[in-house]
User: Fold these one by one.
Assistant:
Number 1:
Amino acid sequence: MKRLVLMGAGHAHLVVLKQWLREPLTDVELVLVTPSTWQYYSGMIPGWVAGHYSIDQCRIDAEALALAAGADIVLDTVEEIRADEKQVRLAGGELVDYNWLSIDIGAQTSVTSLRGYTGSLLSIKPLEQFHERWSRVQERPASEVLHCALVGGGAAGAELAMAFAYAGRTGASAPIEVSLITGHQGLLPGFRPCIRKLARRKLKRLGVHVIEQRAEAVGPLLTLTDGASMRPDLVVAVTGSEAFPFLKSSGLAVDAEGFVLVNEHQQSLSHPEVFAVGDVCSRSDRALNRSGVHAIRAAPALAANLRAATNAGEFATFQPRPYTLYLISCGDRSAIGCYGPLAFSGRWVWRLKDKIDRGFVEGF
Ligand SMILES: Cc1cc2nc3c(=O)[nH]c(=O)nc-3n(C[C@H](O)[C@H](O)[C@H](O)COP(=O)(O)OP(=O)(O)OC[C@H]3O[C@@H](n4cnc5c(N)ncnc54)[C@H](O)[C@@H]3O)c2cc1C
């Protein structure tokens, strides 16, 4: 039987598997390769840090889903793609042949700017590792104040900084002093000034020290653009994402940053039997932000195209909507949101985000 390998249990693959529960793929051996039984839902991780959710509310049992959808599951990580040979090599050394490959592995946290840092460093991704390590940090005595510096001023960095500060204040975490070092582009680059202003106000109210400068790592110190330096107990890297290095040597067409190049069908430009979706890819026909929302929205087209490729049917196009709803949680059960030209904030925005996020996870 011909084999379709799903690489990674990212957002889109979860939705695709859920669809195949209802309408199974026939005459194809399905294999999911994923490093963990659990797929963590990033949108709820700041809420877990803040103490609003248990970890089980923030993760999906990818293994159970895959098995129910008729897939074999391999708990391992793909370390190499040999696109010309239609093969992937797993970390355990095994070679897996495929007829079709679908890649939904996200991207890794870019820690280039923190290279050389010799202190304690925690990256936000992979989320399963973040969960494990942050849980261990939480085991410190309640009398010990943790000086934590988050590096990265995007939405994830801002959300986490507010979640840390809120958890420290409310007792969900042992005491914590939070600094947010945004980089030279400042807080929430790419967002409108009113959103940035709202976020600055919220961060200040929670006692987060926002430093809109670039940090360089020198041994155990972080040196800032103005020459000042700090020695935090823990640095959390929320420094944006970069492509996994092994994609460049896969034989697949990639863009200048090493992300897999795909067309409007989420199909590789160089190897038509390969599909890629979510943060791992770049569309050749349009620029698209890397976000979970786009990964989820691309899933129906991916499901249709994998069916068309392996069985029969029409190829579908993923046509992103002109605007995306961005919701930034502020730790204290309020949130800031924007949709195109509209900006809004308050407790109702958090309730909306909570409903959307929980609805997604509970749907599995
Ligand atoms: C704190 C935080 C909050 C966020 N909040 C939001 C939000 O509210 N809304 C939003 O739209 N976006 C949000 N994002 C961005 C969002 O997390 C990503 O854009 C999204 O996860 C991308 O989805 P994906 O399907 O591409 O991959 P991912 O969700 O990253 O999933 C990839 C999966 O593949 C696995 N994997 C990785 N490498 C391999 C390999 N070599 N072999 C096999 N498996 C592999 C990983 O373990 C993971 O399970 C947030 C990000 C962070 C860090």
Note: The longest helix spans residues 292-310.
Number 2:
Amino acid sequence: MAKSKSAYICSECGYESPKWYGKCPGCGEWNTMNEEFVTTASKVVEQKVRSVSSYSKPLKLKEITTGDEFRYKTGIGELDNVLGGGIVKGSLVLIGGDPGIGKSTILLQVCQNLGSQINILYVSGEESRRQIKLRADRLGVTGDILIMTETDVEVVSEQIKTIKPELVIIDSIQTMNLTQLNSSPGSVTQVRECTNLLMRTAKALEIPVIVVGHVNKDGAIAGPKVLEHIVDAVLYFEGDKQLTYRILRAVKNRFGSTNEIGVFEMTYNGLKEVSNPSLLLLSGRPTGVSGTCVACTMEGSRPILAEVQALATNSGYGTARRMSTGFDYNRMNLLIAVLEKKGGYYFAGADTYVNVVGGFKLDERAVDLCVALALVSSLKDIPVPEDVIAFGEIGLAGEIRSVSHAEKRINEAARLGFKRCILPFYNLKNLSKDISGDIELFGVRSVRQAVKIIME
Ligand SMILES: Nc1ncnc2c1ncn2[C@@H]1O[C@H](COP(=O)(O)OP(=O)(O)O)[C@@H](O)[C@H]1O
Ligand SMILES: [Mg+2]
Ligand SMILES: [Zn+2]
């Protein structure tokens, strides 16, 4: 017998409380607590216990063979990379992202590439067969895949058991529904229990399942965060919807590194892999103007160049405005404080803005120097020459500290035609010999020294 009691659950993080809060005590989001009927169903629990014992008989460590980790290559190199080499058999992968970012698109493209080798079951609770067919036609997907439009997760689970496909795609988890539960589809309880049921089915039969989860800002449906701890891998699609490129990032991966990213461009025919993201991010860069500088950041094992722009203008009355897009706001304030105290560059009376071009996010300390140079360049209204690239962490004493992967950053800059590189003095001293290309290196100990080299 299923008994229900009501509780308030946060759709962002899954925080549960008997009482309503305007602001979730768990994650601090506003208006995300919704009333749900939590089923203390003996049936659901029973099922769990029974199926766990059926596939997890204790084994001695030495009895376990490691040859088991079989991977399906999706045929999309960037995606395989982010997954750590392909989809692991029996794994549960969550792909999250804003609606319209391209989750269904990339999964249909996976079907095209893999469909000829294995049996794929594509379950959609959002679109009709016709809509899926229309999209498949647009993307040129002709693969032999099974399309099922269903929202009852138990029916889906039964179908998986009978068809025994080699890959299952659930688009999206928020449309799935377990009829035993009283709460509506998309609620935290539903999303969690549906995922659990799919996981039990998948693990028992060793079928990998890819689950789509919408990120939704108004808290009406449960976000992918509430599932992060259940699934094996979590990939997020990021990107500005007004721009065409998308970044796929692993935030959790039990079978690979979480450092890798995949870069794609959204086109009429679907997502195209971008093998040279730096070129894309630097296209249309203004030359001969103050307040811009190119940074080199590491995304996993891969160097990416991005343009940082800064604007410092005289503010009118009252406190100066500061704003930062794509770079941490507090870090920007800290850099400004260091520039004032240690460099003698005063931003006190200036409205100051920092923007990373292309909607890209830079959250690595190594871009400090680049942001600082863009700021000083705008303040003094002297351009940073266009053939200059800079990287280095800035310490509170105003010193430039060394960063990792200096060689890779320099090589990427040289490859894209940069002629001068400003880098931490200690990086220059310890540089290994594998620098390719024609690029002049300047090791600096302070921002002042860097400014002297390129702006004076
Ligand atoms: N006819 C079209 N031509 C070009 N791009 C399209 C077309 N239809 C949809 N798209 C692109 O595909 C995106 C929708 O992707 P989709 O995979 O459905 O997103 P999600 O599943 O993440 O909600 C749209 O934002 C748009 O950029
Ligand atoms: Mg979709
Ligand atoms: Zn919360």
Note: Residues 58 and 64 are 10 Å apart (CA to CA).
